[in-house]
Amino acid sequence: MNVKDLFKNKKVLSGVIAVVLVASVAGGKVYADNQKAQEQERIAKIKKEQLAKRDQLKNDAEKAVNDLFEKAIIDNEDDEKIAIKNDLKSDSVEKVKEKYFVVKSKDAWQININNMIENAENQLKQIDTAEKAVEQVYKEKVLNTDQKKYDTAKKEVDKIKNAKAKKELSDKLAKVKSDIDKKNKEKEDKKKETEKASKEAEVKEVSETVVKTNDVTEQQVVDATGQQIDQAQQQTPQAGQETGYYEPQTPATDNGAGTNQNVAPTAPANNGNTGGTQTPAPPAPEPTPEPTQPVGPPAGWITPPFPIGSAELGGWIFDNGFSGYDSSDGYIRPY
Prior knowledge:
Residues 34-67 form a coiled coil. The protein is an all-alpha fold. Among the domains are: 1-48; 298-335, no CATH class. The chain contains seven helices and two strands. A two-stranded antiparallel sheet has the order 1-2. Helix 5 runs antiparallel to helix 6 (163-235). The longest helix is centred in the middle third of the chain and has 73 residues, at 163-235.
């Protein structure tokens, strides 16, 4: 059957066309489904690879950050107390930061990674600050024993978390502290010696003053006593010396015989007759009466230069090195 015959037979031709169209549509649908499935598979594969890469990146980041510290710090409740590992260099921290630090991230895991990297940086900075402070007082040997500089350095060293770095700097400060203590002890010993010498000089001066005062006072007492003795001696009458004492005479009595027995005989009147005339003997001197009380103060007592009980006398007593006095009959005895 040729084409012309086919066109003549319309029914047959319509059937053929329908079959062709159905086959074409069915094939296209199969192809589309295959393409969609392949795309979904490709996307799923990409997502899986991305997730794998992300997980690997997280693992690498956590390992790198943990390697900066003495023990694992990620997800550790004591992360603020964990020290960086011994002899950690700033270059190592910088490399980790360049690779795993993400600026202004809102992801909780990434924020934690950033914080741990900054923690390592801050610990290194603190060690550097402490080293510079220690160098102000010690560098191969003790350079300065200034207490303030030592205190500043010690304060910075105490902030270090790494035990090795902290001990190395603390050992240097211990030498500085030893010199400071030695210097302070020398100052204290010198101060004590100066105070002791000053007290000894003061005691010596006081002792010498007391001795001089006692000597002066004793001399004053001796002089005053001598003066009183001289006065007493001057007031004591000597034999044959007029004392001014008058003993009253017993009045004359008449015994009935017309004569006064108590009247001494008088010399007869001289009428120019010198013959047989006798001169009566002078009367014997009357004895000196004993004084009713001693003249002058007793030994050790003096006449006060000021009234007894007066403030002037009290001042005189203390000025002469005494602490008080006894008084009796107008005299005093300093003690």
